[in-house]
Write the C-alpha cells for this entry.
Amino acid sequence: MTHLTYAEAIVVGFIQGVTELFPVSSLGHNVLIPALIGGSWANDLNVAKAESPYLAFIVGLHVATAIAMIIYFWRDWLRIIGGFFTSLRDRRVVTVDQRLAWMIILATIPVGIVGLVAEHPFRVIFGKAVAAAWFLMLNGLILYAGEKWRPRRSRVADQEVEAERTQSTLPQSAADPALATVPPGQRPPGRHASGHQAVRQREISDAVRADRRLSAIGYLQAVVIGSTQILALLAGISRDGVVMVGGMFRGLSRQDAARFSFLLSAPVILAAGVLKVPDLMGSLGNGIHGQILVGSILSGVGAYLSLRFLMKYFRTNTLYPFAIYCFVVGLGSIIYLSVK
C-alpha cells in the first residue's frame, strides 16, 4: 500500500481545509503540490492511481471540512433543517427557511448525480498534475470574467445589501420582520449591545436577511447556480468560485453569492466524505489512521478560520486576487512541470 507520512498528512490536511473554501480549488492543489515537490510525495500522493489511499484520504478530509462549516453556520442550519421538516409536516412550502431548504436540496441533485456516475473517469482522465494546472488557469479566468463582467443587477444588489446592513442599527427584532424566525434569545439587541455579543448578533441578523434574499431567487435559479458545481469535479476548478460567479451572473450580490456557495457546499462535501469513510476504515486506511486524524483536525481548523475570514472579506472585496493567484500558479506549474 502507498505510504502516507505525518508530514504529508499535515500539509495536505491544512491545505485542504483552507483551499476548499477559498475559490482556488482544493483538489487542484492536492494534485499539484505532490507533483511539484516530487520524490516520494509524487509517488505517495497520486489521486489518479487505482484504489488510491490518497484519494480516500483527501476526500475523507471533507468530513472534517464539512463539520467545520456546519459548526460555523449551526444556527442557520438549525433554521434550514427545521424548515425542511416543517414543510414535510405541513405539506407546503411558504416560509423563508422552508424555501431555502428545498432550494439547497434541488440545487445539490445535479452535482450529486454526476459525481456518482462520473467521479472515476473525471479523476483518471483529468487527475494529472499538468491538467490540474491548466484547469487552475481556467479557474482564474472564470473568476476574473465573473468579477469583470458581472451584470449591473449584481452590482446594484451589493449596494442594496450594504444599505440594508447600515439601516440595521435600529432594534432588529422590531425593524426587520425577517427576524421573526429567530428565537427571541438570539435576536440582535440593537444599538445598545456591545463587544463580542453585538458582533455575533449582527452576524445572525445579517444571515437571516441574506436567507430572505436568497429564498426569493426561486427554485429554477437555484438549480442553475447549483449545477455549476459539476465543473468542480475537474481538479483545478473551484466549487465555491464557480458557484459565486454563477450566483453573481444570476443577479446575486457578491456577499449573498458567497453565502449560497458555502451553504450548497456543506451537504456535497459531507456526502463525498462520508462515502469514502468505509474505504478509510478498510484496507485503504491500514496504517494511516493516525495520519488521517491529524490531517482531519488541521483540515477542520483551516476550514473554520477560512470561513470566518471569507464571510467578512466578500462584503467589500473582489475575486480579482484569487483570479490572479490561480492564473499565476497554474502557469508557473505548467512551466515547471514541463522543464523539470
The chain has one domain: 6-339. Residues 160 and 166 are 10 Å apart (CA to CA). Residues 6-339 form one domain.
